Amino acid sequence: GLLVFNVIPLLAAFALGFTDYSFTAETHWIGLTNYRVFLFEDPLFWKAMRNTFYYTAVSVGLSVVLGLLLALALHQHLKGTRLFRSVYFLPVVASTAAVSLVWGLLLEPNFGLVNYLLGLIGIPGPGWTQSLTWAMPALILVTVWKTVGYNMVIFLAGLQDIPQEVREAARIDGANGWRETIQIVLPLLSPTTFFVIVISLITSFQVFDYIYVMTQGNPAYETLTLSYYIYQVGFQYFRMGEASALSYILFAVVFLLTLVQFGLQRRWVQYQ
């Protein structure tokens, strides 16, 4: 199964990236032409690249920070924490397509609930997914809402793995809650943080569902990302050779970023 459904398609896509393969014409070997066109002649590719980096940087940053803060709050063993853990994790198990559809209705600028509630307090609601300014922030809002619960659970697991005797020793030495968190908890939690950041970055660069359901890359390509551009080129324009090349450009970007993260981990990740 791994060979048939993963390895062979990956190799086939790599080979097709050097051709002009489509469903409607004869296939020819064209070498690096597809890569050259995207990198040096296609302004839409660079717009999709910028959008992807913007989406990834903001959504991953917010999701990781909020997930960590929620985990620290729910790790206090206060009354009702189990209920809140379940509530925050519920969006994670929901279908991404369903979440995108519901949020698309909530953020509809004319009759959506969000703008209605903003109007009740005197704030004019923006156009959200129909606005050049607010379309990408709307997607980021939905992404963070959907993913923060997953990061919270991973951080909670990391917090539970920290030896209690280390924290107790810090308290005996006079460390208050803030100093204990900064000097003990966060350094010992750095391997978990590293894992969450790597997984979140890889996932964010492959974002597709939210865009397909909510914006289709609009307005004016302001929400066009590399993954959705691959879909457009391959399955809307039927230029499968170009789509294959574009998919390997995306793979190269994610691979290089992951290598950089593994190279930098030695500077800030502290293993017990």
What is the structure about, briefly put?
It contains 13 helices and no strands.
Assign an overall shape.
globular
Residue-averaged pLDDT, rounded? Answer: 93
End-to-end Cα distance, whole Å, is 38 Å
- State the secondary-structure class: mainly alpha
Helix content: over 70%
Main sheet makeup: none
| SS elements, strand count | 0
Number of helices: 13
**What is the rounded Rg?**
22 Å
Order of helices and strands: HHHHHHHHHHHHH
Poorly predicted tracts of residues: none
What percentage of the residues does DSSP assign to strands (E)?
under 5%
Quick tags:
272 residues, mainly alpha, 13 helices, 72% helix
Chart the SSEs and their pairings.
Elements: H1 2-16, H2 33-40, H3 43-74, H4 81-93, H5 96-106, H6 113-120, H7 135-160, H8 164-172, H9 177-188, H10 190-205, H11 209-214, H12 226-236, H13 240-268
Describe the overall structure.
The chain is mainly α and 272 residues long. It has 13 helices and no strands. The chain is globular and about 75 Å long.
